[in-house]
Amino acid sequence: MPPSPFSTSTTSDYTVTTVATRKTSARYRVIGQRSNSPSPIAPATHGKWRIKNSRGLKIVQSAELNGLPWLIHGFSTRPGGASKLAAERVLNLGFTDWDEGKTVQQNRDKFQKALGTKDFALIPLRQIHSAVIHPFESAPAQHCPGDASISNRSGLLLATQTADCVPILLVDPRSRAIAAIHAGWKGTLNRIAQKTAGEMRKHFGSNPKNLLAAIGPAIGGCCYEVGTEIAANFLSQFANAPEWFDEFRTGDEPNPVQWLNMKPPGHQPPPQSLLLDLRKANRAQLVDAGLQPQNIFVSDLCTACRRDLFFSHRKEAGHTGRHMSVVGISN
Fold first, then answer.
1. Residue 66 placed within a domain
2. Is residue 7 part of a domain?
3. How far apart are CA 137 and CA 131, in angstroms?
4. Closest C-alpha among 282, 283, 276 to residue 314
5. CB 300 within 8 A of CB 293
6. How many CB atoms sit inside 10 A of residue 4's CB?
7. 129 and 190 in contact (C-beta within 8 Å)?
8. Which uninterrupted H or E stretch holds 303?
9. Which domain holds residue 70?
10. Residues lower than pLDDT 50 in the chain
């Protein structure tokens, strides 16, 4: 198990650990060689992150969002649940084929109690890797298909489920409006974060300059490998897409030394995969939507690197649990 990046704080009435800020230096790469270090995110966007220990669970929180007394939020972690995965007890909050429904519900109840939201209506979505956004004034009768939800009503706990994808919470401190976003590569390609900020303007009059954004734990640019076809898709939609990859290629580049591998036409090796930083891509979209860069707080915890704390669909070959990222308005 890697060493913990958290230091204990005793300044609160519950146990809190504060995420240590890492300084990232510029990466120097050798052509044809990939760096194993995470893609850097500007230090000003990290914000302060803490882990709240409550009822045996560890909940990641943004210190900046904690400064709003009417707001409740949290990103769940792996330990402390009733589900059994590979001889380990974990907090699986998604209805997966390997877990029992009653156990998942038990985990969800424990998570809500740990957050102090036992009486809130939990509103997860039936996620479809889309840019579909739902406004809620009350709890729906059944799960709605989509990947983002918005509301300005108290007593609702908007939720997204992830196991590598990027969870994003948006908060308007002036109009007391909130959003929960699930951004995989498809949702990111379809600008779901940017569109959700637009929906908050449409429904609640939110000025993007006033919005706060917390981008939670997700697979990092250190671990998220994709093919060159994904890079080509991103380049077709975003002029700054090359900034989100470790070494940008679309697979169409000429190879002047292809003859060196002595392979006949049609037998060339496939293009090398790329590393994509989805958190950086979504941060850029939020800035394009009008958010102030200093109001976007990005966790640098990688779900693939820290499997002691998180589930990773990639690293566990799909046989894993689900986190929940939630946000709500108290009465």
1. yes
2. no
3. 20
4. 276
5. no
6. 14
7. no
8. none
9. 13-21+37-224+277-329
10. 1-45, 255-259
Q: What angle do CA 81, 83, 85 make, to 5 degrees?
A: 115
Q: Please, what sign has the CA dihedral across residues 80, 83, 88, 93?
A: negative
Q: Is residue 8 part of a domain?
A: no
**What pTM was computed for the model?**
0.84
DSSP H helices in the chain: 63-66, 101-115, 185-189, 192-204, 228-237, 278-288
Which of 175, 173, 276 minimizes the C-alpha distance to 231? 276
Count of the separate structural domains present in the chain = 1
Tell me how far apart the alpha carbons of residues 251 and 235 are, in angstroms, rounded to a whole number. 12
Beta pairing class for 274-275 and 212-215: unpaired
| Residue 68, token pair as written in the block | 């709003």
User: Rounded distance, CA 272 to CA 35, Å?
Assistant: 14
Q: Which DSSP string do the residues of 20-82 spell out, in sequence order? A: PPPP-PPP---TT----SPPP--GGGT--EEEEEETTEEEEEEHHHHT-TTEEEEEE-SEEEE
What would the pLDDT profile of 179-211 be if each residue is shown by its tens digit? Answer: 999 999 999 999 999 999 999 999 999 999 999
Distance CA 190, CA 100 (A): 33
Give the residue carrying structure tokens 């997700």. 218
Looking at residue 88, its amino acid is: E
Residue type, 169: L
DSSP state of 96: -
**Encoded amino acid at 277, one letter:** D
Q: Is residue 60 part of a domain?
A: yes
State the chain's mean pLDDT as an integer.
86
Can you give the CATH number for the domain in which 111 is found?
3.60.140.10
